[in-house]
Structure formats: C-alpha cells, structure tokens
Design a protein that fits this description.
The complex is a heterodimer of chains A (378) and B (165).
Chain A: H1 5-15, E1 18-25, E2 28-31, H2 37-43, H3 45-49, H4 55-58, H5 60-75, E3 81-89, E4 95-105, E5 108-114, H6 117-174, H7 179-213, H8 226-244, E6 247-250, H9 266-283, E7 289-297, E8 300-306, H10 318-321, H11 339-349, E9 353-358, E10 364-371, H12 373-376
Parallel strand pairs in A: 6-7
Antiparallel strand pairs in A: 1-2, 1-5, 3-4, 4-5, 7-8, 8-10, 9-10
Helix pairs in contact in A: 6-7, 8-9, 9-11
Chain B: E1 2-10, H1 16-25, E2 38-47, E3 50-59, E4 78-84, H2 89-105, E5 109-115, H3 127-135, E6 139-142, H4 151-164
Parallel strand pairs in B: 1-3, 1-4, 4-5, 5-6
Antiparallel strand pairs in B: 2-3
Classes of the chains: A alpha+beta (378), B alpha/beta (165).
C-alpha cells in the first residue's frame, strides 16, 4: 500500500532531521506538520504538539536569531539567512547540534531547524585536529626556545671557562715539578678532557635534535617574507598599542610588493619581530609611535623596529643588551632577559646579525639582518 | 527574577567551556574539546540582595577557521574575555575582540579572565601588564577552571557590575 502524502512528508522531515515553522510575528511560530523526534526531545511533547509556540522560550538562541531572520524576511530577498550552529540539550540529557535558516516559502515566513549531527561531528573532528596541531606547534616552539637557551648556556657558560682551565693546565705542565704533583696534574688534565667530551656530546645531541626540528626553509617560494612578517606583527600588536594610547605603524618607505624573502622560518621571524616590538613598547612613552620596516641590503634584508623612547642606556653596548639575562634597568626592565637573547641566537644560526643603535633626535632602532632566501638556498 | 546575558569570548583553547562547566556543574576535565557553535547554560546567583539568572553564552573561540559573529552578542549585558595566561598572544586577541564588540554594541561590562593560573611555571603575562590593564579601569581576575580558583569570583564580579550599571 502506498504511503499518503502527509505520511511521506512526515517521513521526509524525520529522515532529514528537519523541522519547519511558520513565523507569525512577536516570537510566535506555528509548526508546519508534526515536529520531528529530535525537536520533540528538546521542546517537550506538550510544546511540540501545541498549535503555536514561542521557540525562544525553550531555545534562547532562536530569540537572538529572530532579529536576523526578520531583517531577511523584511528584505524579501531570495536565498536564506543562516543562524550558524548551536547546541541544545534534550529532555533525555543528550546534546543536539542544530542550525536554523530563515526562508520565504509560498509567500510565508518559514524557519527551518535542522539537526545535521553527522556533518557537525565531522566539522568538530576537523577543527579539533587543526587546533590540536596549532597548540602542539606553539608548545613545540616554546620548548625549542628553552632548549636553544640551554644549549647556548652550555656553550658559553660551561665550555669557555673549561678552555681556560685546560690552557692553564698545559702551561703548568711545562713547569718543572715533583713527580707526585705531575701525577695530580695529569689527573686534572684527563678529567677536564673527559668533561669537555661530555659537554661536546650533549651539544651534539641537542644540535641534532634542534636541526631536525627547525630546518631553515630552503625553498625560496616558501621562505618568510620580511615585510609581510612586519605587517603580521603590526596586526597582532595593533590593539595592545591602541589600548596603551600608542601607535604601531609600518615604515612609509616599505614597499610590500617588493621581494623581501629571507632565509629562516616564518614563525620564528614573527617571534623575533614580536620580541623586538615588545621591547620597544616597554620603552616607549605613551602617545609615541613604534615603526616596523625592512631595508634592502644587497644579498641581505634588514628588518627593523624603531621606537621614540629614551634611547639606549649610556653604558649599554649592543652585545651586552642581547646577552642572556640582560634585563635592562628600572621598572621597564624585561621579564627574564630571554627575548633579545632568543632573537640573537636565532638570527646568528641563520647566518645573520643583530644590533641596535640610537636614533636622532630620540629613540632607538633594533635591527636584524638576514641573507636573502635565494642566496642562502644555494 | 533578573536575567542577564553573558558572553564568553576569547581565542580557542583558553578555557571558556571549562570555566562554564566548573561554574555551572562543578566539573573539570583536562582534555581539550573544541567548541563549534554556541552553547547556552543557565546559572542562578544571589548577588547584592538580588536573584539573578545568568544566561551564559559559550561562544566558539575565534581563529582563522571560525570568525566570531557579532550578532551573537546582541542583548548581552556583559562579557568575560577569557585569556590563557600561558599563551601571551591570547591576551592581544581578547583585547581585539573587546574592541570589535564595543564598536558593534557600545561599551558593555567586561572582565578580563586570566585563566589557567594553576600553570604558574608556564605563565606568560607580566605582572606589569596586569597592573597596566587594571590601571585602565579593567577588572582583571586570575582563574583556574582546574582548581576552581577565582571562578565563582569572576562571575559574581561581573554580575555585580551588570546590576550596578
């Protein structure tokens, strides 16, 4: 026996998990046909079977969407207005993902409520994966920064004194001394050599791991663009500056259309710009401007951050400011003195240089110079 | 009964859903489950001699995959701008969302929530920055959805501010 049209329509709505309501105004709706089971679970059997109902009473999200829907209906335009997804809990405690659309159907204002659960779950899964990856990437960058700092501590703070100790032991060895002292000296030499080997082993282990984690982008088409990085940094910091009553701007001479690709990796170039901008902001008076830019320097590109602060401290040298734990002085000192140090070791690893200088009449310029991508990749 | 709409705003994975769950259901889970769309919860409070129902709009975190629809904020009496204290960039994002929201709706009561304060070792927000925000008249509260620290306080602070407006 063939199904009646009414039953067929009901089966269609149930199959497509779709509820249709005619809008009567003032937040009141009339169900067109019997609402499907997922809506009955949310609205309750009594409300779902009523001749008219205020959907917003059970679903506050709909109350908010009615304003957009009314705007659409008043325009009498083709197509539909979409609400975006929202979640409702049914009487059974289960969560249902819903989407609403406002449409014109046969001269009536109609609201469609759909439960696209499968599509929604897929979307959640894709976004979950993407965001997990982003978080993992951010975490990895922080870890790499910590490891690099540790690595350089080992190089500079442990290796250098050891070299001096070994040199002194060699000098002592040239002196005439009693055999028992000579034996002690040989023990000291062997132990210092052992220590040097151990340090070298740690360094090699770290270097291999770091090299694997952060290979420089060799493909010039994927290399970071210094000017674009300056622009992205500006966008990231714009609000912070505005909130503080200061300005951040791109240098008017910067031509974004030019070729600014450099050796390195974009997220780290952004971090370098970010660290330099944070440093500039810390030293800038309210109402002043911090300017970002890039300069063509033959086979290199120079990225810079200019501020209008008091300039470099009198006793400061560029080398000292970029040292580990160089925090500056006074209340505007940095957090731990790691930011500029990180910039230095990253830039130097990519074959670049970093520095700072006073500007006339006021302020300071912090700059970093990196090889152009095409030059580095050969 | 007074009813107020409160929007939870901020980047993804800052803990908006966890704060709502901790506040409404006293539950916390370490697993990060991304929010797609909007979820609305209710919680009743007794504040300053008034019974208030907070309608908590937990709105997906904004990023390159999902842009915030300003129409969701319509009718809101207050915002919680949630920041992950271990990710400095989420503070800039929160401030930029607030700026956008102010442009659309005019000034609305807001509290900056520096969440995940149990992760002290990884904290990235300078005390200097916190003081600067507070100095500009912002309410800044440190919370941990994990331990519950500051959670009741932050919702109560906002409820009070909305009632006294």
């Amino acid at each position: 026996m063939l199904m009646s049209d009414e039953l067929l329509y009901k089966a269609f709505l149930e199959e497509h998990r779709l509820g249709l309501f005619e809008y009567l105004g003032q937040g009141v709706f009339r169900p067109i046909g019997k609402p499907p089971s997922f809506l009955t679970a949310i609205l309750g059997a009594h409300a779902a079977n009523a001749p008219t109902l205020r959907l917003g009473d059970q679903m506050p999200f709909i109350d908010n969407f009615i304003a957009d829907a009314e705007e659409f209906w008043n325009l009498r335009s083709a197509g539909h207005a979409e609400s975006g997804a929202w979640i409702e809990k049914g009487e059974d405690g289960r969560e249902h993902a819903l989407e609403a659309s406002a449409v014109w159907l046969a001269g009536r204002k109609v609201l469609l409520i759909q439960n696209p659960q499968g599509r929604y779950d897929e979307r959640v899964q894709v976004l979950q994966t993407a965001r997990d990856s982003l978080l993992e990437h951010e975490k990895l960058l922080r870890e790499i920064q910590k490891k690099e700092i540790l690595l350089h501590c080992i190089v500079h703070d442990l290796s250098q004194p050891l070299t001096a100790i070994r040199g002194s032991l060699s000098l002592l060895k040239l002196q005439a001394m009693a055999p028992e002292f000579k034996e002690v000296l040989e023990i000291a030499e062997r132990q210092s050599e052992k220590q040097e080997t151990m340090i070298r082993g740690i360094l090699e282990a770290f270097s291999a791991e770091l090299a694997a984690q952060q290979a420089v982008e060799k493909d010039p088409s994927k290399a970071p663009d210094m000017a674009r990085c300056a622009q992205k940094t500006l966008e990231a910091f714009q609000t912070t500056f505005r909130e503080r009553g200061s300005l951040i701007a791109l240098s008017p001479e910067l031509d974004l259309a030019s070729q600014w690709c450099v050796s390195g990796e974009e997220s780290r170039v952004l971090r370098i710009f970010g660290n330099l901008v944070e440093n500039a902001l810390r030293h800038s008076p309210i109402g002043s401007v911090v300017t970002l830019g890039a300069i063509d320097d033959g086979n290199f590109v120079i990225g810079f951050v200019d501020d209008e602060g008091p300039g470099l401290p009198e006793d400061a040298t560029a080398a000292r400011l970029f040292d580990l734990f160089a925090k500056g002085k006074g209340e505007r000192a940095g957090k731990a003195g790691l930011g500029l140090y990180f910039c230095k070791i990253t830039v130097e690893r990519w074959g670049g240089t970093i520095g700072c200088e006073n500007r006339a009449p006021v302020g300071a310029r912090f700059w970093f110079r990196l090889p152009r991508a095409s030059v580095h990749s050969t | 009964m007074i009813q107020k709409k409160v929007c939870m705003l901020g980047s993804f994975a800052v803990g908006k859903t966890s704060l709502v769950r901790r506040f409404v259901e006293s539950i916390f889970s370490d697993a990060y489950l991304t929010t797609v769309g909007v979820k609305i919860d209710k919680k009743q409070l007794h504040v300053d001699g008034n019974d208030v129902t907070l309608m908590l709009w937990d709105i997906y975190g904004e990023d390159e995959f999902q842009k915030l629809r300003m129409s969701y904020l319509r009718g809101a009496s207050g915002f919680l701008l949630v920041v992950d204290g271990t990710r400095r960039a989420t503070l800039d994002k929160a401030l930029s969302i607030k700026e956008e929201a102010d442009k659309t709706l005019g000034p609305v009561r807001a509290v900056i929530v520096l969440n995940k304060c149990d992760l002290a070792e990884e904290w990235e927000i300078d005390p200097e920055k916190e003081n600067e925000l507070a100095g500009r008249g912002w309410s800044v509260v440190r919370t941990s959805a994990k331990t519950g620290q500051g959670v009741e306080e932050v919702f109560t602070t906002l409820a009070l501010a909305m009632l006294r407006k």
